[in-house]
Amino acid sequence: MISEQAKQRMRDLAARYPVARSAIMPALYIAQQEEGYITQAALQAVAEAIGLTVDDVESVATFYTMYYQHPPGKKVIKVCTSIACYLRGCDAVVNHLEKRLGIKRGETSANGNYTFMTVECLASCGTAPVMQVNDEFVEKITLEMVDALVDEWNDALGNISNTNASDGQGRNIKNVEPKTEIRL
Amino acid sequence: MPELIVTKDIDAPGLDTLDGYRQHGGYEALSRALKEYQPDELVELVKKSGLRGRGGAGFPTGTKWSFLAKNDKTRYLCCNADESEPGTFKDRMIMEKSPHLLVEGVILASYACHVSTAFIYVRGELALAGRQVERAIEEAYAAGYIGKNILGSGFSLDVILHRGAGAYICGEESALMESLEGRRGYPRLKPPFPAAVGLYGGPTVINNCETLATLPAIIRNGAEWYASFGTEKSTGTRIFCLSGHVKKPGNYELPLGTPIRTLIYDEQYGGGVLDDRQLKAIIPGGSSTFILGADKVDTPLDFESIAAAGSMLGSGGVVVMHEDTCIVDAVLRMTEFYRDESCGKCTPCREGTYWLTEILHRIEHGDGKESDIDLLMDICDNISGKSFCPLGDAATSSITSSIKLFREEYVYHVREGRCMVGRGVTQTDR
Amino acid sequence: MSEEKTDELIHLTIDDIPVAVPPGTLVWAAARQAGIEIPIYCYHPKMPPLGACRMCFVEIEKLPKPPQTACTTPVSEGMIVHTKTEKVIKARKGTLEFLLINHPLDCPICDKGGECDLQDFTLRHGPGGTRFDLYKRHYSKPIPVSDRVMLDRERCILCQRCTRFSSEISMDDGLVMISRGYKMEVGTAPDHAFDSIFSGNTVEMCPVGALTATAYRFKSRPWELKRIPSVCNNCSVGCNARVDVRVDKIMRLMSRTNDAIDDGWLCDRGRWGFEFVNSSQRLRTPLIRRDGKLEPATWDQAFYLIASRIRSIADTHGAQAIGGIGSTRTTNEEAYLFQKLLREVIGTPHIDHHHGYFPVPRDLLTGKPWMMTNSIADIEKASHIVLIAADPYERQPILNLRIKKAMKSGAHIYIINESETELDRFASSKISIPQNGAGSAAKMLLKHVLNDEIAKAHQYEEMRAMIQSDDEAIRAAEEYFGVEATTQLQHLAETLVGSTGAIILYDEMATLAPGCADLAADLQALAVLTDNITRAGSGVGPLFEDANSLGARDMGLLPDALPGYAQTAEKGLAYHKMLSSPDIKALFVMGANPLRHVEQLPSKLEFLIVQDIQLTETAELADVVLPAVTFAEKDGSMTNVDHHVQAIRHALRPLPGAKPDWEILVEIAKYLGQKWTYTRPQDILSEIAASNPFYSGLTWERLGAQGVRTQEQMELNDTDVAMRKGAAHA
């Protein structure tokens, strides 16, 4: 359900830009803030507020990686794996996080606590390796930092066990077609 | 100690607030420009300064402004703060630490170009930077630096912050305009160029964040002053983003023409290669530029010299690789970036980057074939110059240059099934 | 050879062949003119250039960054183009190799095989083999995007023709691009179907077999098809189509671009709505009622019975006791012969067909017959388009596309309708009126326009008097409509007065609604008053219902008009009167089904002849049923909504046992003692051309491939003169 205030904010944005259509991106953020991801209701609300068709909004939303098509976990962890972070050991961070969180990159844990993704360059190459947790930077990561953070999160979220019932496999964040690379 | 222009006082506490900024001379350039210069005079001034775009292409800024079509369509300015080129992180620093510097630059450029609505397109992942700029805009509105009749000059301006949502291609200026207009970020056909037909059909100028942030200093101190730094054709200073295998990675503002060696080894800057290893390769301007061998370490960092050495100055993102780097794995990583960021509009980039990563992947993981290396080169030849926009060319830079310089590593992978040097930092199957 | 360049063409050379084309032509099109094929995918002549597929490379001298794409580069004087250099050939091979790395080897099971651009270009321009030896991407396939269209994402080469059609031509975003990069796919919003009436165009324009039609899947191979140029028979637009036939069945209709009518598109009804032609319910033998049941009979028996009963009824009750109901879907030749049979051979004046309400055959103000005064192409030039009680998306879909095209050039759309219409979201103003309110809305517009200063300059006394007499009713309607609608109508009236070219269209059948008897006349008057009849981009007229509605009128299937709208000596009974009059003892119904519009047939009817392709409700009550053939099995001419006379051509032989309507009519005339000498429909057309001012000079050959738009060959002064002559009200 998208709140009335959110819809009004979308309409205000549509009026702020020279052409209403430009407001589609901020409107999608507002909808995602309320719903957690881009739901049918989100598409509908944005389409109505801006005067577009739902298909059009879906098409734009799926172009950008920051609009989630599936419900994300409470903590969305994005580790940069581009060249500068690669040179400073991000892969070890990724592997370690997979172990500690109990899910593979691209997955959301079955209890809904964690979504773990690898992402492209986050413009923080000077403090590599780097990740974002719910859009806030964690820089110059070491494996010890990872451990400390995961312990902290587990406590905060009441996450008793890191592994899930089914052998460390979480729910895929994207419907996986056969033989398709899962990178988000 | 060389002159710091854009990063002057960057670490001063409170610089990101209006008062703090003003204490350090903020908005003096604006008030001077509005009082003493006609817009066209400002364009001439910037031309004389020799300032070139800091986003990657290095096009002379004043000249770009003068290309704006002279018709009665509404003009727009857009600050390209969609910093996504791997190895680049300077615009983020400016926006987080000195957002008013950017805002002042936006206002100055808008005044010079007769623009009444300006946009700042910040990549979505830079949440803090976006918040900082948003606040700076609000403070500027409140202080009368943006809005109607700025400082009584008769010039009015509206500034809108627009957040991206995770697409490197939207850093390409025509794709940026598409994204701003509320569409999928596909690049546009050129011609028409943005200066003729840009945002909403009107003449548009798109400048990089650092470029705009340089304007206040140029106005305050003059074109000749700015041109006194750097080299004849690459004037001024710029922020170099040093990353990779160096002891002290980070943003360093240096005059153009400084040799790469200084940036990497000087104690004030990079402090030398990580673990005092041997330098193996340098990427001078972000992962889209050709890799240079260690023998090019004395090349001056200016547009002309780097081009003569076989690469591009690009975004100023200097990535350093030492002797323990498996070049094949590093190139694979860089190519995956382009595969994931390809917009998909044109066939060569969309299918080609996918194919390239698949071949590099199997070379890296021991299943490569002899023919793969030449196949990589041929695929790159079929992408470069044939794709719709420069992303296709960018995707091939690291491959073609690395095969030229380090072919033996590729051959070793194919013949021996493992890395010649380094552990190939990748440890798991992907 | 230095000729003076007196023409305004641009001269260039392509592969050393000199070519001259109008300025603005793309290099790709210029090459085609020179007979040189440049392979291409994303480009479509009706959409702006995209340059995405990177297939159409050429090398143009003196331009930067070779190779360049031919579809995005307009020609320039003296340009030198090479299409077969090493660089170009390598680039083409490269692109094709890229397209084929993920493309499945589906050719043996893919509908498109044989007419597939990927097959063809790979054969002609592609590499002999692929170097890709890895895993292709997979999708579940095919998936239905609607109940008419299937999508196979593995085959898709992402040329974006279908998505651009959906966003730029049909503007309904039926298909959109989802995701980006190598994961990009064509699709719809979740749980949304591609239920546009125009979906078939994407199937046709898809260069590969990614979009396929459920109506055609696995039914045929393209090389088995016979392709006959004809015209769609589903509505009054008369889109040019190509009928594809396999052995003895229609497989599909494809478009056959006529820029003046369909602009290269077909709607799904026309494209796939031909089941009735192939239907097993087709009549294959004449039927005669014996002992209360319809039983098969021979043609001779049927004709003999018809002739003897008609003669006996005429002798007993007079020819006035016989009536004829004609068709809006048979050809001009057949309509002409039908009325000729009834008027000249049988001698009755009672002829009509089911049509909208028009007070007299010709509008009194302008002297023109009731039809669109503008052409379909004129719609693009209008500054304002008013649709009153009309939703082209439902009844004349391709006109909906033409209106959208006009919108892209800046036209404003006004919709006056009691329900929602597909164009509502594009309308500058949607005026919602109560049920059956169209007639009152038209009167309100007329009233406001008459009050306007410009109108006051001319005298228009009679019109003023008429509106005055309706004043009470108009005021009541204004109250009933409410303030918002009334104000919107007032505003529209003002807009119309000041417009540079307004086209006012209404659905023919809307005139039959209660309170809408004056709709046609009032809107005609509105157009005259606002000077929207003769200017470019202006016009007014009904959107006819069927493929030959206008032809039926032209051919005199009217009780008060002869062919060409000459006045009849005696006025016959109109449609509803004929069907309810106790004086009608015999009825001949051809290509029509009156029981769809009336409860029952005339109470004293003694003899009913029905000529049709299937056993309709009316046919089931007939005494004699004559099996006719469809549009696909005969030749003839049809007249569309903006008076294009077009040739339909037989794509199939007549169904064994059935005959074309015109042949049946010739036989009936013979049995009634009148020997007509027509041997082919072309003969009938000649006779029509000789006597009907709207068809004067037409021959079958002149109709050609794209038809001819004819107007009355009469001198018509400006409308003022016609009005001052002041024909009396009927």
Report what the structure shows.
The complex is a heterotrimer of chains A (184), B (430) and C (730). By secondary structure, chain A is α+β, with helices and mostly antiparallel strands. Chain A has 2 domains: 4-61, Arc Repressor Mutant, subunit A (Orthogonal Bundle), CATH 1.10.10; 75-172, Glutaredoxin. Chain A is built from 7 helices and 6 strands; from the N terminus they run H-H-H-H-E-H-H-E-E-E-E-H-E. A 6-stranded mixed β-sheet of chain A has the order 5-4-1-3-2-6, covered by helices on one side. With 430 residues, chain B is an alpha/beta fold. Chain B has 3 domains: 18-227, Rossmann fold (3-Layer(aba) Sandwich); 237-322, Ubiquitin-like (UB roll), CATH 3.10.20.600; 327-427, NADH-ubiquinone oxidoreductase 51kDa subunit, iron-sulphur binding domain (de novo design (two linked rop proteins), Up-down Bundle), CATH 1.20.1440. Chain B has helices spanning 18-23, 28-36, 39-49, 61-66, 90-97, 99-112, 127-142, 173-180, 209-221, 223-227, 260-265, 303-309, 327-341, 347-364, 371-383, 390-416; strands at 76-81, 117-122, 158-163, 204-208, 237-244, 250-255, 279-283, 292-293, 317-322. Chain B starts with 17 loop residues before the first helix and ends in a 14-residue tail after the last helix. The model of chain B is unreliable at 425-430 (pLDDT under 50). Chain C is an alpha/beta fold and 730 residues long. Chain C folds into 4 domains: 3-98, Roll (Ubiquitin-like (UB roll)), CATH 3.10.20; 107-116 and 133-278, 2-Layer Sandwich (Alpha-Beta Plaits); 287-355 and 548-709, Rossmann fold (3-Layer(aba) Sandwich), CATH 3.40.50.740; 377-543, 3-Layer(aba) Sandwich (Dimethylsulfoxide Reductase, domain 2), CATH 3.40.228. Chain C has 24 helices and 28 strands. In chain C, the strands form 7 sheets. A 7-stranded mixed β-sheet of chain C has the order 15-14-25-24-23-16-17. A 5-stranded mixed β-sheet of chain C has the order 2-1-5-3-4, sandwiched between helices. A 5-stranded parallel β-sheet of chain C has the order 20-19-18-21-22, sandwiched between helices. Chain C is globular, with a radius of gyration of 29 Å. Chains in contact: A-B, A-C, B-C. At the A-B interface, helix 2, helix 5 and helix 6 of A face strand 3, strand 5, strand 9 and helix 13 of B.
